[in-house]
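Study this fold:
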Amino acid sequence: MNYHNLKHNLFRTAGKLREQNLRRILYSCLQRPFHKPGKYPTDIVIETASVCNLNCTICRSVKADLGRKNRFMSLALFKKIIDDIAPICNTIGVSYCGEPLLNKDIFNMIRYASDKGMCVSMLTNGISLNAEARKGVLDSGLNFMAISMDGAAKQTYESIRIGASFEKLVENIAALVKERHQRKLSHPSIDLQMVVTQKNLHEVATFEKLARDLGVDRAYLKSLHIDRSREDVEYVQYLEKDYFVNSTTLPSRYIVNESCRLELKDKGLCPQKARTPVITTDGNVLPCCFDIFGEYLLGNVTNQRFMDIWNSAKYSDFRHKLAMHRKLPMCANCLPSDYKKINKILF
């Protein structure tokens, strides 16, 4: 195990063993039935909001009609999901196609899952991290927060994250780190991430320095994802021409082939073993986070138990015959088999 993985695991453990939560975690673990190892997914994404406050240039969600309503998940549905999956799952994410901090119930949701002994992570753009939201984050028991900052200078950042304020984001992050320190909390672990593009390539060193100055726990670079599940030629050409970085030293999931087209570096079996389901705001169960259009609906938890959906013949066949072997359009450009190398941890 390298240093960065060790550090990540230590933060995970510290967050799990936070104040007053050890008893709940042990109780929850004892309540989990003994299943075959690997029979069920241990990490499930729950979309608490499909609404966003930004209009980012590289975001597929705002560049296309996803064919589903923009909405917030209700607290009642969230609780039902947690009750369903608590016996089999120990980790959830509360972000998908929207901004989770916009959901008025988000902190009650995180606390409910946390009280069940679950490890909870959130990806946010950080713009809504005002004083009230920061208190909610620190009170809720959230374990991990990753904040997207796709530029280390005002002009770059705001040209990509349309509708955001660079100064506000920096202020919010600094305040969150300070308030966590003042309260002597080990959670949430705070990550800062930047998707590497032609627009911010020159700011990598500045981004790392800014992240260190802000006092976050970890900073890393992410590779650009270009979705081709529905051949939107204009969208694809736009990202390939203006944003894609062809580099051997910076994160990239693609290579330029002999036909001068982008393709995955490694198209082996699904690196996530087709075991990373998403539950959308309206309860639909999708196979993974790359199915943003909701094309492969496998069930709905409003009227079904998650385990019943997971164990169904439909889902089992889908996992083993289609998704695992990348036989779907959305699988063509998602992640290379050795996907852990497409991000670069700076510290």
User: Anything to note?
Assistant: The mean pLDDT is 88. The two ends are 15 Å apart (CA to CA).
